[in-house]
Amino acid sequence: YYRSLSVSEMESRITEIKNRLGNKLFIPGHHYQKDEVFQFADVTGDSLQLAQVAAANKDADHIVFCGVHFMAETADMLTTENQTVYLPDMRAGCSMADMANIYQTEEAWSQLQTLFGDTIIPLTYVNSTAAIKAFTGKNGGACVTSSNAKKMVEWAFTQKERLFFLPDQHLGRNTAFDLGIPLEHMAVWNPINNSLEFDGDVEDIKVILWKGHCSVHEGFTLQSVQHIRTMYPDMQIIVHPECSREVVAASDDSGSTKYILDTIENAPKGSSWAIGTEMNLVKRIIKNHPEKTIVSLNENMCACLTMNRIDLPHLLWTLERIENNEVGNVIKVEEDVAIQARLSLSRMLERA
Ligand code: 13P
Ligand code: SF4
Questions:
Q1: Which pLDDT value is given to residue 23?
Q2: Which of 44, 98, 126, 145 has most ligand 1 atoms within 8 Å of its beta carbon, as the pocket-test mutant?
Q3: Measuring CA to CA, which of 24, 26, 323, 351 is 20 to 30 A from 181?
Q4: What is the predicted pLDDT for the residue at 48?
Q5: Contact at 8 Å (CB) between 64 and 17?
Q6: Is the pLDDT of residue 341 over 80?
Q7: Within a domain: residue 241?
Q8: Tens digit of pLDDT for each residue in 182-212?
Q9: Which of these three, 195, 214, 233, is where a domain ends?
Q10: Measured in angstroms, how far is the CA atom of residue 134 from the centroid of ligand 1?
Q11: Range of 278's domain?
């Protein structure tokens, strides 16, 4: 039915419902959302900013999260009992978050405890399930986002000698490397065969990286960098730290979504940039900066497909159900999980 409506009809219905519900409705939108949805967000931001605004909002009864599942779970855990969080399409997950489940994590932890005793602390990228955030909270660790990863890794080393970083090996490796930890002191935990990938004396290990990755950011390769260097020798290359270590090392700069946005915003007129991050965002940066030459680091990349599952029909469907008091795609984390997950989130938010 929604597919039979024209874009302008869906847009005007969404606008009308937003006007009728006023501040009882709140729509946070991640920078990776497509423009058709992004235009309706009350606040836009990266995952850290959206977690902060969700926690700060005390007025809205209905929070329609335009992002992916783990972000909506985080919003649910940081809002009150009386506020309901919705994800317009339940299929909007994150393939990286799906690379670590709680059973694999508990198994890894028990083996790491055997190897390292009480010298290790978990640090979990927010791109993870609520259950893994709870595991992290329970074991004294904290969450991180790409915006505060350095600060949180530094904090973790004030707590314990070693850290277990999950689920993105690249963010963990890039962040630890930037803080001066040599690659030879980093091991990889392979959850497929429950084993530690490391050549050397395990006593030397400072960081254990879960073998997960983002398939969007792994699409930027050394070849992409070399191609840009050949085609546009004067172009600066900036990438997200979910890209591999070799791509980050070959680029000119790297940083979180907010860092990339701020860098391009503050760059001189006429400067030229190749950006290695999600395509909806890169296209929006290109559109918003006609005074700069900007390209994607890999023009063949597509957008994050799960972020793209949130579209106009799903947004309208969700809003109409809310208005008609019908059940929508409610995201509700079980309270026993949420209590422990909030520990890891609040250890991050109080330092963010
Ligand atoms: P940010 O933390 O930069 O918002 O990134 C979220 C994400 O999913 C990156 O791929
Ligand atoms: Fe997950 Fe990667 Fe999509 Fe971010 S871009 S939501 S990490 S799959």
A1: 95
A2: 145
A3: 351
A4: 87
A5: no
A6: yes
A7: yes
A8: 999 999 999 999 999 999 999 999 999 999 9
A9: 214
A10: 20
A11: 217-296
Quote the ligand 2 centre to 71 CA distance (angstroms): 11
Residues 15 and 83 in one domain: yes
Atom 2 (ligand 2) nearest CA: 214
Which residues have any ligand 1 atom within 6 Å of their CB? Answer: 46-47, 127, 145-146, 214, 242, 256-257
Q: Containing H/E element for 241?
A: none
The domain tally of the chain equals 3
DSSP state letter for 66: B
Using a 10 angstrom Cβ sphere, with 0-12 exposed, 13-18 middle and 19 or more buried, the burial of residue 330 is middle
Pocket perturbation via mutation, ligand 1, pick of 257, 277, 307, 309 by most ligand atoms within 8 A of CB: 257
Alpha carbon nearest to ligand 2 atom 6, residue: 94
Paired sense of beta strands 84-86 and 62-64, if any: parallel
**Tokens 């063949």 -> residue:** 300
Are residues 115 and 73 part of one domain? no
Q: Does residue 350 fall inside a structural domain?
A: no
Predicted confidence (pLDDT) per residue in 25-41, tens digit: 999 999 999 999 999 99
Two tokens, residue 218: 């792994």
Known binding-site residue numbers: 30, 47, 94, 125-127, 146, 214, 240-242, 257, 304
Q: What's the pLDDT band for 7 if we cut at 50, 70, 90?
A: very high
Q: Same domain for 152 and 135? A: yes
